[in-house]
Amino acid sequence: MKHIDIEITAESGLELLTNDEIARLSEHSKGGEHELFKKCVLAVLNSTQITDEISFHNEQLKHFDVEVLQLNKGVKLKIKNAPTTALVDGFMIQGLKEQVFSVLRDIVFLKQELESNSRIDFNSSNGCTNAIFHILRNAKALRPGCDPNMVVCWGGHAIPEFEYQYTKEVGYRLGLRGFDIITGCGIGAMKGPMKGALIGHSKQRINNGRYIGITEPGIIAAESPNPIVNELIIMPDIEKRLEAFVRLGHSFVVFPGGVGTAEEILYILGILLHPENKNTPFPLIFTGPKESASYFEHIDRFIGDTLGQEAQSKYQIIIDDPVAVARTIQKGIAEVREYRKRMHDAYHFNWQLEILWDFQEEFVPTHENMSALDLSSDQPLHLLAANLRKAFSGIVSGNVKEKGIEEVRKHGPYQITGDSHIMDQLDALLEAFVTQKRMKLNAENYVPCYQVSKPAKEKKA
Questions:
Q1: What does each C-alpha distance from 447 to 176, 371, 412, 444 come to in angstroms?
Q2: Is residue 375 within 8 Å of 388, Cβ to Cβ?
Q3: Which of 51, 81, 213, 424 could bridge across to 229 with cysteines, CB 3.0–4.6 Å?
Q4: Is the pLDDT of residue 67 over 90?
Q5: Where do you find CATH 3.30.1850.10 in the chain?
Q6: Which positions fall inside the Pyrimidine/purine nucleotide 5'-monophosphate nucleosidase N-terminal domain (predicted)?
Q7: 98 Cβ contact list (under 8 Å, min separation 6)
Q8: In the CATH hierarchy, which top-level class contains the domain 3-117?
Q9: Topology of domain 131-357, per CATH?
C-alpha cells in the first residue's frame, strides 16, 4: 500500500476555537493519549481496507504519525504516511476528513474535559449517564425539537454477502420512511443499513439524512468507520458506547452477527428485564433473510433457556420481510413518541430508562475477571443478562481487540465457568458461531480465545 504526507484543516466544530483552546488541544495530543489518537486516525484512513486483523494496522502504525498544528484560523493536522486510498487527486476524501476531526474532538477534547470539567464523572451511575449526555451534546448528536426517528441497527461485520444485501434492503425501506440510522459504524451489518437508507433518502429527496456511527477506541481499528458515516462518535469504552446507543435510539433492529451482536442483545435485554423498565415501549426486532433463520433460532433458544420467556417477550423475530420490519418500526416509534410525550421525557435522549451500574462500569476482560463472572441462575434475570453480556464482551476482546488478543497470547484461552445448563447453552451458541464463520473475517484460521467449562462439583456429579 502506498503512503503520503498530507495536511488537513479542521472540521466537526473545531474550526471555531480560541487560540488558548487550540494550544491545549495541541499539548494534549502530544501526551499519553497520542498513541491512542494515532491509532484511531489510522483506523479512519484505513476504512477502505476490509480486515479485522490488528497486525495490519500495527504494521502501518510504525511509520504513521499525526501532529496538531496551532493556527490563528483554527486547527490543522499534519499526517505522516497516510494511506493513499484515503485520497483523491492528492486531497483527502471529505467524509474521511470529517471523521478524522471527530477523532480529535472525542479523544483529545474529551481528555481536556475530564481534567477540567466536573460534569464529566464516570464513577457513579447518574454521573455516567450525564457524562454520556455531555459527550453526545459536544458531538452535536442531540437535536431537541425533532420527532423520534433514530433506528439503531446492530449486527456482525463478518457476514456473508446475502446477509449484507438483506441489511441494505431493510435500510432502504427505513430510509423511504424518513428514518435515520445509527450503527456501530463498521462494515457488514453496520454499513448495509446506512447504504440502503442513503438510497431511500435520496429517492424521497431527504438531503439531511443522519448516519451515525458509534464506536470506542478498543474496537475502532478492527471495525474501521465505513465511509457513509457522517457523524462519528467515539465513546470511552464499550459500556459507554452501548448506553449511548440506548439513550440516543428510538427503536432497534438486530441482524445476524457473532459474539459482538450477542453482547448487544444481552445488554438491551438486561435493561428491559429490570422491573422499572417493564412498561417502557422499546421496539426491538431480530431479522434476517430466510437463509439465516437458523441463526435466530439459536439466539432465541439461548435466550429462552437462560433468561426465560419474559426475555423472549421483549423482541419480535421477522424473517425475510424488510417491508414488515420497516412498518413494525414505524408503528413502534409512534408509540415511543406518545409515551415520551405523556411522560414529559425528551425525544432526543432517553432519560426515563433505568440502567444499573452493572451495565455501565467498564468490564476489563482479564483472565481473572472472566473466570470470576457469576453465570448462575441464582440471581435476578437482569443481572444474569449483565454477566452473560460481560462474557461475550471478553470473547469480542480476545477475538479482535489488541489488549484482549495480547491477554490470550500470554495466558491462553479465557476460562468461562457457570451453571451446567447455562454453560451447555453458551457452548452450543458459540459453537454455532464458529461453524457459521461469524467469529472473525478470517474464519478459516479461527482459534477460539475461550474455553467453556462447568464447576468441578458439577463435573463429578
A1: 42, 19, 11, 9
A2: yes
A3: 213
A4: no
A5: 3-117
A6: 7-113
A7: 11, 12, 230, 232
A8: alpha beta
A9: Rossmann fold (3.40.50)
Residue 337 contacts residue 251 (beta carbons within 8 Å): no
Q: Which three cell numbers stand for residue 108?
A: 483529545
- Give residue-wise pLDDT tens across range 327-357: 999 999 999 999 999 999 999 999 999 999 9
What's the mean per-residue pLDDT of the chain? Answer: 89
pLDDT tops 50 at residue 461: no
What mean pLDDT is predicted for residues 132-141?
A: 92
For every residue of 291-317, DSSP letters joined together read GGHHHHHHHHHHHHHHT-HHHHTT-EE
Closest C-alpha to 57, from 78, 75, 88, 35: 35
Nearest to 313 by CA among 305, 301, 304: 304
- 3-class DSSP state for residue 66? strand
- Long-range contact set of residues 303-311: C-beta below 8 Å, sequence gap at least 24: 303/265, 303/269, 305/421, 305/425, 306/384, 306/388, 306/422, 306/425, 306/426, 307/269, 307/273, 307/381, 307/384, 307/385, 308/381, 310/273, 310/381, 311/269, 311/272, 311/273, 311/381, 311/385
pLDDT at 120: 76
424 pLDDT more than 50:
yes
What pLDDT is stored for residue 155 in this prediction? 95
Write out the three cell numbers for 155. Answer: 449486527
What span, in angstroms and rounded, lies between the C-alpha atoms of 40 and 31?
Answer: 15
- Say how far apart CA 458 and CA 306 lie, in whole Å: 18
- Predicted confidence band of residue 242 (pLDDT cuts 50, 70, 90): very high
Q: Which of 3-12, 45-54, 63-72, 421-430 has the lowest mean pLDDT?
A: 45-54
The 251-254 sheet, strands edge to edge? 231-234, 211-215, 180-183, 150-154, 251-254, 284-288, 316-319
Residue 259 has pLDDT above 70, yes or no: yes
* Alpha helices (H) in 204-321, listed in sequence order: 238-248, 259-272, 293-306, 309-312
